[in-house]
Amino acid sequence: MNDTRLVHLVDDDEAIRHSASFMLRHAGFRVKTYIDGVAFLETVADAERGCILLDVQMPGMDGLEVQEALNERGVAMPVIVLTGHGDVAVAVRAMKAGATDFVEKPYAKQTLVEALTRAFERMEARRQEDVLSEEARGLIERLTARERDVLIGLVEGHTNKVIAEMLDISPRTVEIHRANLMEKMDAANLSTVLRIAFAAGFGRSAQA
Asked: For the domain with range 142-207, which CATH number is right: 3.30.428.10, 1.25.40.20, 3.40.30.10, 1.10.10.10?
């Protein structure tokens, strides 16, 4: 597997596709180019995960329309839009629609590389969060129903005594369930328990 970061460059201007892809490859990225938004959308379902560098001004289907289509299809790859100089309104619309950044043409190499670097860092952070969330959910799935009830109480900041009253059991029984859930979650202290629970999205909504 090639770990080099992949950029999907979508621009109808052949000269820009050539110059930008050359520049980005020289900066250490892999690049796949597309002649317009329609061509990209035709292949995006099977496309390797990467960052999308999307020109706004394209015939047939402009960048904002492509971005809308990506959102509708649930494509989670970060998008950086390329806008005309001073086209702030378009940039704002793109950012509101979920673009991670925008770069004005004509752009400097450093500006583009920095924008892509930020986008890939965010993508990696989200990937790590997804991994942590999945691992956390797996740990919580080990718990019994009663242990999950105690966990809810802990997440809501209640003491063992309050949790015991809520569940109509003795404080000693709460202590036992608490010790068991901590062991199953491989948690040495309450702060670790809470971090795992929050990573799994386990909070007040867990009661539903």
From this structure: 1.10.10.10
**Lookup: tokens for 107:** 């752009």
Please write the tens of the pLDDT for every residue from 95-118: 888 899 999 888 889 999 999 999
Amino acid at 23: M
In this prediction, residue 204 has a pLDDT band, given cuts at 50, 70 and 90, of very low
Structure tokens at 85: 């100089």
DSSP lists the bridge partners of residue 81 as 54, 102
Torsion of CA 162, 165, 170, 176, to 10 degrees: -50
pTM: 0.66
From start to end of 49-206, where are the E strands?
A: 51-55, 79-83, 101-104
- CA 33 remoteness from chain centre: 24
Q: Please give the backbone phi and psi of residue 54, each rounded to the nearest 5 degrees, phi first.
A: -120, 120
Judged against a pLDDT cut of 50, whether residue 138 lies above it is answered with: yes
